[in-house]
Amino acid sequence: MSRQILGVAATFLTSVLLSSTGLAQSTPVEPSFEFFMNEVQPIFLAKRGDNVRCIQCHTRSSGFRLQPLDDHAHFWTEEQSRMNYASARAFTVPGADPLKSRFLTHPLEASAGGDPFHGGGKHFASRSDPEWRIMADWVAGLAERRPASGTVVRIIQTNAAGDNSSIIDPVSNTVVATIDDVEIPHGVTSAPDGSAIYLSNETMHSLDVIDSRTLRVKRRIGLSGRPNNVSITPDGSKVYVAIMEMPGAIDIIDTASLTNIKTVPVDGAIHNVYVTPDGRYAVGGSIQRSMINVIDTRTDEVAWKLEMSSGIRPMTFDTNADGSTKNIYVQLSDFHGFAVVDFATRKEIARIEHPAVEGEVAHLDGLQAAPAHGLGVSPDGKTLWSTSKVYSHAYVHSLPDLKEIGRVFVGQHPEWVTFTPDGKTVYIGAAGDNAAYAVDAASLTVIAKIHTGQTPKRNGTVLMQVD
Question: Which end of the chain has fewer CB within 10 Å, C or N?
């Protein structure tokens, strides 16, 4: 028997023995570029407490070096990402103990196994930090994020005069976390599976995608102008963003590629945009042109328009038995109440004015031509809630007869309305109180006043993934 054959036989027998004893060593998996680009790179841009962002130092580093972003860019190109990948890869030992990779130990606290010193500060206090775990999973060879352990319902209250949004637990009615680093957040929505939160960023003219498990900005998507409200399709495939600049537009964001795929010209700067409950239309309202613009979400073209008597403020919808849109409820500039538009006939069919509240002093300061600025139809479709900044109350009407059935005090300058999925609790942002009011929908009583950030206006009920 030749020496070559004996060598092959010996190698085979050795591999069998190692496998049978559990001593075989698997070949380390090369870290995924796609995972690095989409999940790891956002960590380098994130703001954590009083630390500088990684990109601030590492574009000048002679070791692990990040490519500078192009002018006005919010993220790296693929070519730049590959250069960042190569630089990071040089400081990793794939598949081994994570504490063998300097990429992982350098920003980690020494008490958790990290290096004694990092010139950019210690970003991660422990190895259980969700962002550190993403980086460790990349080094270990995972091709995608680990599955979340579950989801929770949260109320997100954006703080219009601040740089954060408050996350409220509807069980405890307390603020349990904040989303930071989004200055002047406006509209909010979330992915149906709870993986991402979408916030419009008025300062940076971007739609900011928040990782719901780390609460960091994962991506900023550039928009065609200053954004206001946002809305997502029921399947989560597209986010529609109101652009509050003339001559008027609604931007459409593809959530799979995280890109701005279309800017739809409309009639007038858009204050708010809403996807109808059935997902068939995106409805945008213009204050300047007093115009409702309705976009067909199948073609992403304007299907029809309706001019009202004054500027279009918040809107909401109810549905027919088959799920199609029945009415649009509309608050209007300088009108203390709401109008009703029949969606099928495209005509105004009713207008309800809110009466004065006995014993309540009318507040006329800072109304910004919006005495009523918050609307919501309950999940069961039986009631319509409308807020009054003049009288600090929410007016509740039954549907479909539009009879007022009650009122509840909800703080100074109450704004937007959102419900828990079961409809039992209503949350209203009180901009003048820097608080959100939780209201029991059945008894119309306030059950909690929850302190938030500065000037809380728009809010939303979201689903969030948790580790």
Answer: N
Which residues, including other chains, have CB under 8 Å from residue 116's CB and lie 6 or more apart? 110
Which residue reads 């960042």 in tokens? Answer: 84
- Rg of the Cα atoms in the chain: 26
- pLDDT, tens digit, for every residue of 333-373? 999 999 999 999 999 999 999 999 999 999 999 899 999 99
- Looking at residue 26, its pLDDT comes to 62
Structure tokens at 162: 């601040």
Strand 375-377's sheet: what is its strand order?
375-377, 383-388, 393-398, 404-409
Q: Which two tokens stand for residue 218?
A: 């994962």
Tell me, what amino acid is at 66? L
Please name every residue paired with 81 in a beta bridge, in sequence order, or none if there are none.
none
273, 253 contact by CB (below 8 A): no
End-to-end CA distance of the chain: 58
pTM of the model: 0.92
Report how far residue 80's alpha carbon sits from residue 41's, in angstroms, rounded to the nearest whole number.
11
Contact of 423 with 397, CB cutoff 8 Å: no
How far is residue 242's CA from residue 240's CA, in Å, rounded to a whole number?
7
Residues 6+ positions from 36 with CB-CB distance below 8 Å:
81, 84, 85, 88, 138
Please give the DSSP secondary-structure letter assigned to residue 381: S
Complete DSSP assignment for 139-153: HHT-SSPPPPSEEEE
Interatomic CA distance for residues 92 and 298, integer angstroms: 46
Q: What pLDDT sits at residue 62? A: 80
CB 341 within 8 A of CB 330: yes
Return the CATH architecture of domain 150-466: 7 Propeller (2.130)
Confidence bin at 28 (pLDDT 50/70/90): confident
- Over 72-125, what HEC string results? CCCCCCHHHHHHHHHHHHCCCCCCCCHHHCHHHHCCECHHHCCCCCCCCCCCEC
Contacts of 408 (CB under 8 A, 6+ apart): 393, 394, 396, 439, 444, 445, 446
Q: In terms of DSSP bridges, do strands 174-180 and 393-398 run parallel, antiparallel, or are they unpaired?
A: unpaired
Burial class (CB in 10 A: 0-12, 13-18, 19+), 361: exposed
Confidence of residue 61 (pLDDT cuts 50, 70, 90): confident
Contact (Cβ atoms closer than 8 angstroms) between residue 200 and residue 165 = no
Query: What's the chain's average pLDDT?
Result: 93
Nearest to 298 by CA among 267, 317, 327, 275: 275
Find the DSSP H helices in 143-275. Answer: none
